[in-house]
Amino acid sequence: xxxxxxxxxxxxxxxxxxxxxxxxxxxxxxxxxxxxxxxxxxxxxxxxxxxxxxxxxxxxxxxxxxxxxxxxxxxxxxxxxxxxxxxxxxxxxxxxxxxxxxxxxxxxxxxxxxxxxxxxxxxxxxxxxxxxxxxxxxxxxxxxxxxxxxxxxxxxxxxxxxxxxxxxxxxxxxxxxxxxxxxxxxxxxxxxxxxxxxxxxxxxxxxxxxxxxxxxxxxxxxxxxxxxxxxxxxxxxxxxxxxxxxxxxxxxxxxxxxxxxxxxxxxxxxxxxxxxxxxxxxxxxxxxxxxxxxxxxxxxxxxxxxxxxxxxxxxxxxxxxxxxxxxxxxxxxxxxxxxxxxxxxxxxxxxxxxxxxxxxxxxxxxxxxxxxxxxxxxxxxxxxxxxxxxxxxxxxxxxxxxxxxxxxxx
Length: 410
Fold this sequence. Notes:
Helix content is about 40%, strand content about 15%. It is of the alpha/beta class. It has 3 domains: about 1-185, Arc Repressor Mutant, subunit A, CATH 1.10.10.10; about 205-280 and about 385-410, Periplasmic binding protein-like II (D-Maltodextrin-Binding Protein, domain 2, 3-Layer(aba) Sandwich); about 285-380, D-Maltodextrin-Binding Protein, domain 2.
């Protein structure tokens, strides 16, 4: 409950520092509560803008909406329980009374009223502090404020005063705020207007595309999750780089920030690169059904030494992965009868000439296993599995959206 209260207050005020001041907490404590809530929910609630105010993420808006309902229900529960027990419900507004220190007022139609403050008019008017409408800059009759969902909105001072709803419960604090805003409608003529600050050319972090490097066969497992992520973070487009799916290809782009998340093939942990193991896919050797090796019920790796092979072209990143696998089991180097990335040409070579074998894994292995006239060799000792691993760039800790997407892709 406390974490939901703090979330609602940060969204209302627009800054962690302002929420901490209103709640009587330190800014560190407010940040810790928000991080704990994000950890429990498994998603980022705020987009932390460098040099600017935090704004609610799409998930944060949903959590805030449901959180307000939970807080309202809790308030109603307390009132109902006290009423049933014959305990009078405390009301605020009389001189000298203190608002109950249970919940903040989350009625969206009222000006926000701080909890744990006296409603004594003299005390409130000593230091009036704007709550919903910040003090405008002198450079313009327009001000930037924060709405209830954390979005920055530019409004006219005239509109700001005109559109303030009449509070249902009289509040000296609200009246003091309106008086201060009205006095600032016309800035002193003697003060020179402040020149606008230069706008940085770099787009905000929340608008930067998230780049995922991977092989199409890997990403095919995450189509639904990618669609859900794009719906949850519509302001962050997801770009996919299908040309990089090996450790050598993703290392530099990850380090430089050109790639945020990489899902790649490897034969094991990669030295110098922090990555997580996701799953493994087994290598298989395929030959024509009447090939002498295909006729055997069981084969050892020694039976396959010096057998002719078909491999991908040198330019294909999977070629090096295949050779590394064959080296580990002592089957490389070997005579190569064909080098091509054309699967139709590979199948033709296997079926029409029948001398060579073709190493494959994953989706490719499944396709060749289902092809009539071809057979998977029955090896007693399996070939090393190909691991699918995940790595994220070093800046992901500063980008909650990238961290959330990386968690989905695993």
